[in-house]
User: Which sequence fits this backbone?
């Protein structure tokens, strides 16, 4: 069994495709992809699960099935409400990320890292700045 378990939110999107490839190139990784429209996988180290990041209870139920997660990656995006304006829904994206992080903290055994990214930018989050990592809970 793989030692590291990545949960990738938005796993069927373009940004996640390369991340999945890179992680699975290392035999120490197993990947769980979260998506509103999950795909089938023939790879025993890759499975997809249905999850709706806009629904806190739904994402909590999904992550409750992946308590062994060691890393969480956010590559999801809210669907444009008006693509002609070219402006993303910042509040919607922030709410989805918040739901994911809250669920990971509640249901996973303690992810070592949580990362979000856009294009070639990656932001690593762990632990929260206001927490003392050595406090023991």
Assistant:
């Amino acid at each position: 069994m793989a030692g590291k378990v990545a949960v990738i939110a938005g796993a069927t999107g373009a940004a996640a495709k390369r991340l999945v490839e890179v992680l699975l190139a290392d035999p120490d990784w197993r990947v769980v992809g979260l998506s509103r429209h999950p795909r089938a996988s023939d790879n025993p180290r890759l499975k997809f699960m249905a999850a709706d990041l806009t629904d806190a209870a739904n994402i909590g139920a999904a992550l409750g099935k992946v308590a062994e997660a060691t890393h969480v990656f956010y590559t999801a995006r809210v669907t444009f409400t008006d693509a002609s304006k070219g402006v993303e829904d910042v509040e919607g994206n922030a709410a989805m990320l918040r739901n994911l992080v809250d669920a990971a903290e509640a249901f996973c055994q303690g992810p070592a890292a949580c990362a979000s990214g856009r294009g070639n930018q990656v932001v690593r989050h762990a632990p929260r700045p206001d927490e003392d990592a050595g406090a023991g809970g």
Q: What stands out?
A: DSSP finds three helices and six strands in the chain. The longest strand covers residues 29-35. Residues 119-137 have pLDDT under 50 and may be disordered. Strands lie at 4-9, 29-35, 46-50, 71-74, 113-118, 121-125.
